[in-house]
Automatic annotation (TrEMBL):
The keyword Calcium does not apply. It comes from Halorarum salinum. This is Indole-3-glycerol phosphate synthase. It comes from the Archaea. One of its GO terms (molecular function) is indole-3-glycerol-phosphate synthase activity. Belongs to the TrpC family. Keywords: Amino-acid biosynthesis, Aromatic amino acid biosynthesis, Decarboxylase, Lyase, Tryptophan biosynthesis.
Length: 264
């Protein structure tokens, strides 16, 4: 684990401290994963923007909390065209759980990403998912070992980066799926130009995901034009102030159909 967290926002330091104390699983995970690149290709073939829609009850940067059944929400997202889902399993700050991920993955046929702050090999064994998020900044020199450990269990690692140095570390670690986070974890500020700066250096055979700050169809088109193979969209779909399930489906469709919308 990278322990140089002094520049991080207090909320992020709190999340990492809680994650460091969280136990891992009681047995070794063995996953038969659904392929994210294949799901993205199927969405493209169907004329949809490949979107990973996120089941996120709450977060330190979101007001309010969604109390709807996450399985029902996930189903509406898939109906709206989501190529894959992301499920928060961090309990203290995001209201997630491994039980929620298990229920969602059992209910859908698309790849499911486990989004959490995983800091050790044992954390990988807490629950089976198709993909696991590995954040380069927090793993530091441990990143290659965690990428390998994830693959040994059948997971597809999605390695998250924010700048060129982290991208280099991700590629050196063998990452085949990379997410560029537009949110600066030091200040929790969002800047979509982050993706535009980092994306050109990513090898063409790497599946590239744009994360955070994608709130409109125009944002989706901007990220796609900058090279994103897919988009991870959370708050703009969930609408933590309490949108109905139908709105979740409609919100998802706004992004999956972003490239067919007529400009105003």
């Amino acid at each position: 684990m990278n322990t140089e967290t002094g520049e991080l926002a207090p909320a992020v330091r709190s999340i990492l401290a809680a994650a460091a104390e969280r136990p891992g699983g009681t047995g070794r995970a063995d996953v038969d994963a659904r392929s994210l690149p294949d799901a993205f290709a199927a969405a493209e073939a169907d004329g949809r923007v490949p979107v990973i829609a996120e089941v996120k009850p709450t977060s330190p940067t979101t007001d309010g909390e969604r109390l709807d059944d996450p399985v029902e929400l996930a189903g509406r997202m898939v109906e709206g065209g989501a190529a894959a889902l992301s499920v928060l399993t961090e309990p203290e700050h995001f209201g997630g759980s491994v039980g929620t991920l298990e229920r969602v993955r059992d209910a859908v046929d698309v790849p499911v990403l486990r989004k959490d702050f995983l800091l050790s090999e044992g954390h990988l064994d807490a629950v089976e998912a198709d993909l696991v998020l590995l954040i380069a900044r927090f793993l530091g020199e441990d990143l290659p070992d965690l990428v390998e450990a994830a693959r040994e269990r059948g997971f597809q690692p999605l390695v998250e980066v924010h700048d060129a140095d982290e991208l280099e570390a991700a590629i050196d670690a063998g990452a085949r799926i990379v997410g560029v986070n537009n949110r600066d974890l030091a200040k929790l500020e969002v800047d979509l130009s982050t993706f535009e700066r980092v994306a050109p250096a990513i090898p063409g055979d790497v599946t590239l995901v744009a994360e955070s700050g994608i709130t409109t169809a125009a944002d989706a088109r901007r990220m796609r034009e900058a090279g994103a193979d897919g988009l991870l969209v959370g708050s703009a779909i969930m609408d933590a102030e309490g949108a109905s399930d139908g709105d979740v489906r409609a919100n998802t469709r706004r992004f999956t159909r972003a490239e067919t919308e007529v400009e105003p």
